[in-house]
Amino acid sequence: MAMKNESTIQPIHPAPLGKRMVQGAGVALLLIAFFLFKSGEPNPEWGKLWMIKPLLMVPVAGAMGGAFYYFMDYLRYQGGWKKLIATVLSLIGYIFALWIGTVLGLNGTMWN
């Protein structure tokens, strides 16, 4: 009986969880920063530091979307139609997380 060499077994996750979360948070931060800085003059009722809330909430939601992508690797690893479904679900999950983070981040300021 031949033993498998553990160095030849491919891991299910091609990248660590932390890396996927940082990637998700980075994309979310770029998107919300672009949106906020192009939004024009803020309402004086919002206070001086109104941008802190969306600049924190949206990247956290993006990190959660990145984690969802990471956990879908199990299906993606199986190949075939499961890979396609996992990729589509990952994209939908990430967009949903960004949407929820944006709504929570902008609630009380731009979206009242």
TrEMBL record:
Report keywords, A-Z. Answer: Membrane, Transmembrane, Transmembrane helix
Where would you find the membrane-spanning parts of this chain?
21-37, 49-72, 84-106
Q: Would the keyword Transmembrane helix turn up in this protein's UniProt record?
A: yes
Q: Which domain of life is it from?
A: Bacteria
* Key word Transmembrane present: yes
Name assigned to this protein = Potassium transporter KefB
The taxonomic lineage of its organism, from the top, reads:
Bacteria, Pseudomonadati, Bacteroidota, Cytophagia, Cytophagales
